[in-house]
Amino acid sequence: MDVGAQASPTAFGSMPGSxxxxxxxxxxxxxxxxxxxxxxxLTIAELGYRLGRLDRAHFVMDxxxxxxxxxxxxxxxxxxxxxxxxxxxxxxxxxTGRWARAMTQxxxxxxxxxxxxxxxxxxxxxxxxxxxxxxALAGQVVPxxxxxxxxxxxxxxxxxxxP
Length: 163
Hints:
There is one protein chain. This protein has helices at residues 36-45, 105-117, 123-132, 134-145, and strands at 2-5, 17-20, 26-27, 49-54, 71-76, 82-83, 86-90, 95-96, 101-103, 157-159. It is of the alpha+beta class. It has a domain at 2-103 and 144-154. The longest helix has 13 residues, at 105-117.
């Protein structure tokens, strides 16, 4: 798996992460150990995502002698941004074996700006609209990015709790 940019910006002007299938790619990630109340609070805060068990992921600890058998992650309900037919990875997430084009937040926002607002628009225009008129921005971005977003395949994860 790799970590791509979700197919639309957040209300605070960034392109959040979204897992996508990427055979041969290994990303640097962190484990967050949560109590049940913390998990409930975090899940409520991540409404754009669905909590699920990663069925095709393997986690290797860098230093601690701990084995993690069951991995859970928040899976984007929207999916990862696709440009020119391919998902785009977040450059800030270290990876080996990455085949997807990796972009910075600014480059992603510049690209979304041009797509949704026109050729002279830039990242700052998207961020400004996130704060000033998010519904208008969403109305321009969503029809262009959501239909082509790539979601993590169902055989890669199991929704939690299991229905």
